[in-house]
Amino acid sequence: MAKVRFLKEPTVERKLLPLTHLRNVEDVRVGALTFRERIEMLTADAEGTLYILPNVVLHDLPRSGVIAVGGRPVAVWTEEADVARRILLEGDSYDGREVEGHLVERPWDIPHLLEDVIPEDIELILRARSEEFYRLNDVFIHRSTSLRLVEMEGPGLIEAQVRISPFVVLQGPFYVGAGSLIKSFSHISASSLGPVCKVAGEISHTVLHGYTNKQHAGFVGHSYLGEWVNVGAGTEVSNLKNTYGKVRAYSYHEGDVVDTGRLFVGTFVGDHAKLGINTTVSTGTVVGIFANITAADSPTPKFVPDFYWTGGGRMDLSKALEVARRVMARRGITPTRDYLKRIEAVYRKTVESER
Fold this sequence. Notes:
Layout: E1 3-6, H1 10-15, E2 29-30, E3 33-34, H2 35-42, E4 49-52, E5 56-58, E6 66-69, E7 72-77, H3 81-88, E8 96-98, E9 101-103, H4 114-129, E10 133-136, E11 139-142, E12 146-147, E13 150-153, E14 156-158, E15 163-164, E16 168-176, E17 181-182, E18 187-193, E19 198-199, E20 202-210, E21 213-214, E22 219-227, E23 230-231, E24 236-237, E25 248-251, E26 256-259, E27 267-269, E28 274-275, E29 280-281, E30 285-287, E31 292-293, E32 303-304, E33 308-309, E34 313-314, H5 317-329, H6 337-353
């Protein structure tokens, strides 16, 4: 397996907030896979060292030289870190190969890539693990998964130990991560559900990163929900303005709302956030990590800060850490010391920025 080195671009990490508060850019899920998982699968039988931007989606990876997407160098095979930095970060001239791919620079880029990326990811997964699945039309189902009276239209892939209740509609492309539950009368389309998610209602063009619950009726579209998020009963997400105009959304990088240039934009929710019952989430809302919002905050503002407490307060750091431990323990996970330190670092930045 080749050595993979992700070259950091600080502005990219900031532009992708709040998704990158508690994870590196390369660990953000786009489609069925994270950036890291995809590249590691592509390089599993390669040799050498690949330097690559952490926010690039590739399914075609040449085994030598410089690789470019849309005229921008995104990866290079080399043993020299300085050479890679000059080409990928500093704009040195290069002679390389152009391939199909995507650079993800904003959270709202992700929902619009799912229809293209999920089918390619499924093919990549099957290359490595085809014997684990059986095929039903264009849907690949893990042999340990339980489902009955489910209407499915591929392409789609359902991982191990998934439970799908009767009268569910899965409309491709879709991906359902291991250990997830989809409740009766749900409708999932063009979406990726990460591992150990529990979902119900209507979900369209959305990523649930993992360990997230949306167990009741309600619509979520063109959105991204991080890990350990809980969406209460009756919560609805708007992904289209009444005027059918382009949506503006909050950017941590600019510290203000910016024009997304897109018609369909839902919500982008940081890890450990909680959306209480009957919350109305406005088009283009960005919700920070550990934010707690309720129907009293409806319709939500464009930006809900990290550690926000409904009514305008702030969650205590000690309470946030306590809740993280409690919630993660329910899934048999103990947060690492580094993970808790990362939460503390975001909290301190949040407090400092509000002084």
